[in-house]
Amino acid sequence: MVRKVKKESNNDMSITKSLLVYCALLGGIYQLHAQTDNPYSTEVQQKIQQVENELKSAYGDESQSISNQMQAYKLKGLSIAVIDNFEVVWAKAYGISESENNTAATTKTVFQAGSMSKTVNALALLKWAEDKGVDLDADVNSMLKSWQVPNKNNRADRVVTLRMLLSHTAGLSVHGFGGYRKPDNLPSVLQILKGEKPANSRPVIPTILPNIEILYSGGGTTLSQLILMENTGVSYEQYVRQNILTPLGLANAFYSVELDQYGQQEVAHAHVKNGKPIKNLYNFYPESAAAGLWTNPTDLATILIDLQESLRGHKAQVLSQSAAQEMITPPLSDGLTALGIFAYKKGDETYLYHSGSTRGFLGEYIISSTTGQGLVVMINGEDSRIIEEIKKSVAQAYQWPGFEPKEKADISFSDNDIQAYSGTYQFKKRQVTVRYEKEAFSISEKGKWSGELIPLSRTSFVVEGINPETTIEFETNEDGVVTEIKATQGATITWSKVEK
After folding, report:
1. Closest listed residue to residue 200, CA positions, set 230, 179, 185, 184
2. Nearest to 294 by CA among 245, 328, 232, 226
3. Rg (CA), the chain
4. Sequence-ordered strand ranges (E) for 107-203
5. N or C: which end of the chain has fewer CB within 10 A?
């Protein structure tokens, strides 16, 4: 089950392995910025209004508007790009990009992409591998000069491959990165991997055997950054620019380490959960592959559309159809993590997504693998709820396959129900706890994630705020005793109830 987004903790882990309008906000004037010349057709304008005014904070709730929800969540700026029929059909920005001058956000305003950088990184690595005939399943130590993955006695079961690095199955440490307050004296990629000052993260080391299970690792992604640098002879950022950004005509995408050179565009400033800006405006992330991309939703959507075009066999700038298919295929049969991307099924359609989180920024994209639909949302704030609400609204407006609306069931649970469902459930070495508090069930994994269980029937629930959508079904034995839950998030995993 995917965790709720936190600060650059790269929370994409699954249970099987997130018009011009003014309104008063906190005593100030909150500008909801849109294109002043309104270039869209009547049909598109109707879709925009539907999306903007039919947000729901939970299953069965009354519809809310984007402006109301931004106010409720104390969000300053938000930007959207909607994909339909393999193109960006509309893009809009709302609120402000920075607080000091109350500057309106526009569709050109760039935000930090956080872990969505990993998708661009995978495209770059697969592009390089395809062009140079590199085997994704070869030992990465054969591709490295200045650093090696520790492998005592050269054991075959400890070999790490590029496919593993990109799919978080390499068993390496360092989940995510906290960033740096100033651009001065940033650590090198090698210092980050070694955990040496001025790096503020721990060394990247093996913690479990590779290719066994998903262990989300920004450290592993950073190692893939070093591989690209050492084998191309150019900086990581230069390679991505030459092979992805420039061919796609993207003028509003760059990396933290390039801010002085490319960051003269409209740059959003970070705001924390109470809506206040951070003092240093934004953090810097030299871990370019894992978290360092700055972009806007339209440019990121353009990258994603190129991947969609590759998947359907149309001429694309970056990958061939076979390489694109390899990118979206999870190496582990019961996993959701493909290469730099998460893949899960809803109905007959496979959806591809990633979220991103850095200090004061959040974002998420989701695209279909075949229908040419999708969405990119980025905010300069730290409350992810509006992202999920916008996604639901867009999915309904554009009738995404598998996103048919679910309504909250009006059910009163008896004391027997509460006692039967409550408790601890185990899958392998992991445990989740179901509780009933404040007239609602919740499910949580200690120290990792939690979510309210929204009833769809007496035994079937959906976990609110968890992405991708996760359903929980309580199962009973022949005596009617609850013995397990079946959690479905793409695949279905059975968690057995732990006897007291």
Report:
1. 179
2. 245
3. 22
4. 111-112
5. C
Which residue stretches of 288-379 are H helix? Answer: 288-291, 297-311, 321-327
Nearest CA to 92 among 108, 73, 71? 108
Q: What is the pLDDT of residues 465-500, one digit of tens each?
A: 787 789 999 999 998 999 999 998 877 889 999 987
Name the strands in the sheet holding 342-346, side by side, starting at the edge strand that comes first in the sequence. 103-104, 87-98, 77-84, 374-379, 361-368, 349-358, 342-346
Q: Which residue shows structure tokens 């992805």?
A: 244
Query: For residues 123 and 340, is the Cβ–Cβ distance under 8 A?
Result: yes
pLDDT at 21 over 70: no
Q: What percent of the chain has pLDDT over 90?
A: 80
Per-residue model confidence (pLDDT) at position 453: 95
DSSP string covering 27-76, please? TEEEEE---TT----HHHHHHHHHHHH-B-SSTTPPPB-HHHHHHHTT--
Only one residue has tokens 């393999």, namely 86
Please report where in the chains the tokens 């994209």 appear, as a residue. Answer: 365
Indicate the residue type of 257. Answer: V
Our measurement of the distance from residue 179's CA atom to the centroid of its chain's CA atoms, rounded to an integer in Å, reads 18
More confident residue, 264 or 267: 267
How many residues are there in the chain? 500
